[in-house]
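Reply to dn_fold:

You asked what the input looked like. This is it:
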Amino acid sequence: MAEAADPGKVKVALCQLHVTADKEQNIASAKAAIEDAARNGAKLVVLPEMWNCPYSNDSFPSYAEDIEAGPSPSTDMLAAAAAAAGVTLVGGSVPERSGGKLYNTCFVFDHNGKLLAKHRKTHLFDIDIPGKMTFKESLTLTPGEGPTVVDTAAGRLGVGICYDIRFPELAMLYAKRGVQVLVYPGAFNTVTGPLHWELLARARAVDNQCFVITCSPARNPDASYQAWGHSTVVGPFAEVLATTEHEPTTIYADLDFAQVKERRANLPLTQQKRHDLYELVDRRSSSSKQ
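and this is what came back:
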């Protein structure tokens, strides 16, 4: 791919939303958060994973929307809000119904409300920590087909969803394609979150010398699944630029894209790789969008 354009400095907003079983209220809350972020000067706005429904296999089918078959309340709102606010919008994720299957899907819109790309969660969250956390997304969801890279006014973005962040190969593919910002809407839990959430974000940043954004729902004490929260922005030197606790809020950070070039020049890791010893294979390199 051609080298990514340099957008200079971009203010990003991460909307850590309170999610309930009331879909209409969730949509209204997300819309209000996008509007508030734009009023505060954000040009890139990020929402959390599964912001329109409770995070549960019971909820995914009933809250799912087929954006190709007709009106889609969640994505219609995202497109309209992005256009009205004039922002690049990474719309977290919602359950998507397509071809008889369900996906955990992130939609990315430009400042005119045009759909630029969608990323279907590539690695499904199937874990079993006895006595602490068991969840299997594969009971209801289908994995996506591959990486999603999208050029926006706010930089070249590589999109992952939650569990995708645990796989460094995906982030490495994104870096190889010139991505400047890795964006992970996510909903880590209170078992893995304390140890792994920030650690993984900083690891992906230092490995690939780019910005990393992780946006979580707020913790809802009444929900069956307890989100960790702690939405975070990490810089290309693995420095935490902004973070928060688990309450509903919006956090902001300024992304200085000159830092990506500077850090990659300071530590020229790409040029120093031993390709005679190992190799990263990008099997989907002919397409930058899913």
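The two ends are 16 Å apart (CA to CA).
Hope that clears it up.
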